[in-house]
Amino acid sequence: MTAWFTLRNVVVAGLLIVLALVPVYASVTGNAFLMTLFTRIVILAMAATSLNLILGYGGMVSFGHAVYLGFGGYAVGILAQEGMASGFLQWPMALAASALFALIVGALSLRTRGVYFIMITLAFAQLAYYFAVGLERYGGDDGLTIQRRSQFAGLINLSNRTVFYYLCLLLLVGTIYLVWRLANSRFGLVIQGSRSNDRRMQAIGFPTYRYRLVSFVIAGTICGFAGALLANHTGFISPAIMHWTRSGDLIVMVVLGGMASSFGPLIGAVALLVLEETLPPLIRLIAFPFVEQPVALKISEYWQIVLGPLFLLVVLFARGGINGLLKAVGRD
Amino acid sequence: MLLVLEQCLNGLQFGLLLFLLAAGLTLVFGIMDLVNLAHGSLYMVGAYFAATFTAWTGSFIVGALLALGATLIVGMAVEVIAMRRLYGRDHLDHVLGTFGLILFFNELVRIIWGPAGMSLQLPGWLNAWIEILPDLEYPTYRIAIIVTALVVALFLYLMVMRTRLGMLIRAGASNREMTGALGININLLYTIVFGLGAALAALAGLMQAPIQTVQIGMGENILILAFVVIIIGGIGSIRGAFIAAILVGLIDTLGRAFLPDLMRLFMSSRGASQVAPALSSMLIYLLMAIVLVVRPAGLFPVSNK
Question: CB contact, 8 Å: B85 with chain A?
Answer without folding.
Answer: yes
